[in-house]
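Lab notebook, design round three. We kept the backbone fixed and only want residue identities now. Task for the bench partner: fill in a sequence for the structure below.
Input structure tokens:
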């Protein structure tokens, strides 16, 4: 609809993203997903501090790239909002960020640099491997591991560089995408890749994708993202198949 406000639609997409991430056990009481405003790249939408499964559109507020709320300045916010603000500042191509503590990715985060690699064709976005953020290198060996300042967010964004996913040692993962749908896909499929990789490692040494195979697989990713998002909306009761009387 011409002239329609994109913000309510983006908030609804973020609510769906939260539900989908809960459904796949990517987030639990912790974790968050944000989206950059399409008509104002210096701003992004993120829920106030709340468990992901409880987030409604009314909980989602606007932040600037310093990581602070624009209007509701005293709203309770996530300590780790700087993950989002500093990645948006560093990566103009990124329009959505998912931060999570999904268990197998935490396992991968403590397995050492280079341990986590793409094993299946749905995970080409993992490329030649996933960068690993080591907070001890920037803040010493006595932190609570949280990205609780702009400086730490900036260091995380530097480690992410141009990758789609960054592991955070002893903590979790941050996945990024050009859309909410792509960032959610990467968060869910990173955990799936970890599951497949660990299963294979119980039987022997896995055959990982070559960098060229990963790149070729990523070439079809927009179709994968579109199909999984439609299915996932249905899983959370927002898809066409779950609406009686809707044809198609
Ligand atoms: Mn965290």
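Proposed sequence:
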């Amino acid at each position: 609809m011409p002239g329609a406000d994109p913000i309510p639609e983006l908030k609804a997409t973020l609510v769906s993203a939260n539900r989908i991430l809960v459904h796949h056990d990517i987030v639990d009481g912790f974790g968050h997903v944000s989206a950059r405003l399409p008509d104002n790249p210096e701003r992004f939408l993120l829920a106030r501090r709340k468990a992901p499964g409880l987030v409604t559109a009314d909980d989602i507020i606007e932040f600037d790239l310093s990581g602070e709320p624009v209007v509701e300045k005293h709203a309770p916010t996530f300590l780790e909002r700087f993950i989002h603000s500093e990645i948006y500042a560093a990566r103009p191509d990124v329009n959505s960020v998912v931060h999570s503590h999904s268990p197998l990715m935490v396992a991968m985060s403590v397995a050492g640099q280079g341990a986590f690699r793409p094993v299946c064709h749905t995970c080409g976005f993992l490329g030649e491997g996933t960068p690993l953020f080591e907070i001890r290198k920037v803040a010493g060996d006595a932190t609570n591991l949280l990205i609780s300042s702009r400086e730490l967010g900036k260091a995380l964004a530097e480690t992410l560089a141009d990758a789609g996913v960054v592991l955070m040692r002893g903590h979790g993962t941050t996945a990024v995408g050009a859309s909410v749908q792509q960032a959610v896909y990467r968060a869910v499929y990173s955990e799936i890749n970890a599951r497949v990789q660990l299963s294979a490692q119980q039987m022997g040494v896995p055959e990982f994708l070559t960098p060229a195979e990963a790149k070729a697989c990523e070439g079809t990713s927009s179709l994968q993202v579109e199909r999984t998002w439609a299915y996932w909306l249905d899983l959370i009761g927002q898809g066409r198949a779950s609406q009686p009387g809707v044809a198609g």
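Keep this in mind before ordering anything: The longest strand covers residues 40-47.
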